[in-house]
Amino acid sequence: MKFAITFGRLHPRLWAEAAEAADGLGFESAWLPEHLVLPKEMAGSPFAGAEHPPVPPETQLFDPGSMLSFLAARTRSIRLGTYVYLLGLRHPFITARAFGTLDWLSSGRAVIGAGAGWLRSEWEALGIDPATRGARLEEAIGVCRRLWTEETVAHDGPFFPFAAVAFEPKPVQQPIPIHVGGESAVALRRAARLGDGWIGMGATPESAAAVVATIRRHRHEAGRLETAFEITVGGACSTEDDLLSWEQAGVDRLIVTPWRRSAEVLDALESFARRFIER
Predict the structure, then answer these.
(1) What pTM was computed for the model?
(2) What is the structure's pLDDT at 48?
(3) Which domains are present in the chain?
């Protein structure tokens, strides 16, 4: 099991200190929540069964490429990713450049959690039809991978067409891994077809096991069972029985927030690492 943290339940002034601590304690990765903008009028939630948005519109937001590059300079081995990035909301040039830079600066530690997004009004604020967000995400994933790996790239897709370009420098990773989020039937098929993994929020071992089975079926149908693939979820782990349940569910990486208040984060990380990582 790989253990990771997310900065979503932590004051931004403590992110660098928490990343440094997690890096030293052996956490495998750290994940930054992402939105480009939060409209005053919001509806929906990324969590199944929830009716209200989990974040207020005044939530502090930071550019993920910039923030994660800053954290890369403060750490040595921990991987740095997004939980999750609205890849289809930007032109692939922007995404490929930002995360290519992060990967170059961090010596190959970038990872992207990407999703179509649950907040329709965020897309509308940018003048983009939210009904196109899934198709835009799929096209953008393919373009980014080509920019990161091919010498010259031209693209004739419906959303991001462009004539031949060069794109340098290439990232260290060829290409940077993209883990696809979302829990709808369409999102799970997308992750199985296009992702290097699936990333989920607010899971239980039971819900994760169901997703693992569904994605495995889709990967079999797509002829991708032999392709490397990781299951990443956010969830609680307080006991050895919890850990065993996550492992039996087929989870490869567990994103945890073992603190209840920001002031507790360093002690909570150390206690968690002593119990579950150092073992």
Answers:
(1) 0.95
(2) 66
(3) 2-277 (3.20.20.30)
